[in-house]
Amino acid sequence: MIFNFKINRMKKTILSMALLLAGGLVFAQKKTTTSAIINFDATTSLDALPKAENKTVIALLDTKTGKLAFEATVQGFNFENPKIQEHFNGKGWMDSEQFPTSTFSGTIINLTKVNFTKDGIYNVEVAGYLTMHGVKKPVETKAIISVKGTAITASSNFSIKLADYGVNGAAIAAGKVSKEPKINVSAVF
Amino acid sequence: MTTRNKFVNAKKWLIGLLIILLAATAVIWYLFTLKHDDTKDLKAVYSVEAVPFLKEFETDMSQANKKYAEKVIVVNGIISELEMADTTANIKMSDTTNGAYIIFAFQNQHVEETKNLKLGDKVSVKGIFSNAAYSAILETNYVTINRSAINK
After folding, report:
1. pLDDT at A4
2. In this structure, are B28 and B46 located in the same domain?
3. Sign of CA dihedral A167, A175, A104, B57
4. Same domain, B1 and B47
5. How far is CA A138 from CA A24, A129, A130, B30, B91, in A?
6. What is the pLDDT of residues A66-97, one digit of tens each?
7. Is A179 exposed, middle or buried (0-12, 13-18, 19+ CB in 10 A)?
8. Would the CB atoms of B88 and A37 count as touching at under 8 Å?
9. Same domain? B59 vs B101
10. Closest in A69, A76, A100 to B137, CB measured
11. Nearest 5°: CA angle at B66, between B136 and B59?
12. Which of B39, B131, B141, B143 to mutate to test the interface with A (most CBs of A within 10 A)?
């Protein structure tokens, strides 16, 4: 009788530990992906070519603290037109040899609005620092957090002023590249 | 100069101008409609094994980045991760000793080739070397290969 009771208690303890471990794995607070996507659109009425996509962006979301971070290699942006890609990486534009990566590090300000354990679409505010072309600037933008089962998607649309980051090429002055390109970021964790 | 000679000269100038205009239009048209080559049709400059390739960046990242910059490269290795979405496909090969990885982003016309791949498959992938960097988020080195296609 006592022996059976001990066995049952041991079983319960093991089961509880297993559930805790599984829960910890499912709801691990730091989530990362290496396949986040950034779309960059600097097209103007004079030129429809300067738009690109980077599909190998590293992203982090900490569901406990709201930390959100991205790392993108400049050379990872693919343009349909190879000549535009060459110009984009050149000294007159992003100078990818000297400044190989662009990063964002920030936090979700209104994290309490998001319930990561309940399916839904949550509108949030994100604030942080964007470092591009060797210049670090504060950025604030709206973002959407979508929760579906264990998948969390973070996405945002915003624009930046290239001049703020010291990007002033001849093509920008000539109106062939937008002075304020639109950027779309999307990460599935 | 007679009127006839003047007319012949003007005609020559006009024809010359027309040829220059046509040539300029052709060059602009060529540049604007230029597309990346299909990676499958390109000849590889280097053929490497995944883990020793990653070790080259561990030894001297700057030197290795210069060596492979924009080169067509074939990498042979084992798939450690598959990251698929509707229109994109990335596969990874990793060095299990330190977490360093190579990520291959597939060229649009070759995304379909990745659909039957599985973790642990030994594959040969051809792509364009983009660059290698250190990730502060993941605390490891990574190499990006763009416009990839399955080599065989």
Report:
1. 62
2. no
3. negative
4. no
5. 34, 4, 6, 41, 33
6. 999 999 999 999 999 999 899 999 988 899 99
7. middle
8. yes
9. yes
10. A69
11. 55
12. B131
For residue A19, is pLDDT > 70?
A: no
User: Hey, of B130, B134, B138, B139, which one would you mutate to test binding to chain A, going by the most A CBs within 10 A of its CB?
Assistant: B130
| Pair (B18, B87) in one structural domain | no
A34–chain B nearest CA distance, Å? 8
pLDDT value for A168: 86
Per-residue pLDDT tens digits for A89-139? 998 889 999 999 999 999 999 999 999 999 999 999 999 999 999 999 999
B25 and B47 belong to one structural domain: no
Residues B102 and B55 in one domain: yes
Residues B108, B52 share a domain: yes
A35/B142 touch (CB, cutoff 8 Å), yes or no: no
Question: Computed from CA positions of residues B33, A95, A41, B113, in that sequence, does the dihedral angle turn out positive or negative?
Answer: positive
Q: What is the DSSP string of A75-94?
A: GGPEESSHHHHHHHHSTTTT
Of the candidates B56, B106, B96, B50, which has an alpha carbon nearest to the alpha carbon of residue B75?
A: B50
Instruction: Assign domain A29-188 to its CATH superfamily.
Output: Lipid/polyisoprenoid-binding, YceI-like (2.40.128.110)
pLDDT, tens digit, 9 for 90 and up, residues B42-99: 999 999 999 999 999 999 999 999 999 999 999 999 999 998 877 788 999 999 999 9
Find residues 104-133 of chain A whose CB sits inside 8 Å of chain B: none
Write down the mean pLDDT value for chain A. 88
What is the reported pLDDT for B8? Answer: 86
Between chain A and chain B, how many beta carbons pairs sit less than 8 Å apart?
71
Q: Is B96 on the interface with A (CB under 8 A)?
A: no
- Total tally of structural domains belonging to chain B: 2
Using CB atoms, which residue from A34, A37, A60 is nearest to B103?
A34
- B86 and B120 both lie in a single domain: yes
What are the extents of the domains in chain A?
29-188
Please name the residues in contact with A55: beta carbons below 8 A apart, sequence gap of 6 or more.
A35, A37, A76, A78, B88, B90, B105
Residue A20 has pLDDT above 80, yes or no: no
Range of the domain at B29: 1-34
